[in-house]
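Hi support team,

I submitted a single chain yesterday and got back a structure, but I'm not sure I'm reading the token output correctly. Could someone confirm the output below corresponds to the sequence I sent? I've pasted both exactly as they appear in my results page.

Thanks,
R.
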Amino acid sequence: MHMLLRNLAIAFAAGAGGGAMKFAAYKVALETGILSWFKLPLAAHAFPAFLYKLVTLGGLFGFLLLLPLFARSWLIRGILVGVAATLADILFFQSGAPLAAALDFGQDVMATFESSPEPKRDWLSDLRRITPVALGTNVIWGLAASYIYDAIAER
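Hi R., thanks for writing in. Yes, this is the structure output for that exact sequence:
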């Protein structure tokens, strides 16, 4: 029981640390203009709430690190959990996404952080804009979380 709780705590902490790295990646993307190039508005005043969301969800997605997926390689495991988080992001957390629509969730997670409300958008056109940024930042999260998990779990 002690080892189970220890592993759960380490996985959550590693995921939260990866969430902080994902926040840093978003901050760099905002400062360099990458987000505006993909037409993904993110208001600077919303960054404290955005940080909270990324660290919390990062911790929850950190439990994926406990799955026995290529347990010997933090690099491959990090990429796999990053891709899994990307699939959850684009299939569930975006408004109009198939799973969100099936469950009747109409709230766009990113709309909370935009400076002004937008009219309802087409999910497929948003998918082309969101996927590269989501995949890049989620793989950064997955690699950071997997590395942190391995570094702490080995002690």
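A quick pointer for reading it: Residues 2-153 form one domain. Let us know if anything else looks off.

Best,
Support desk
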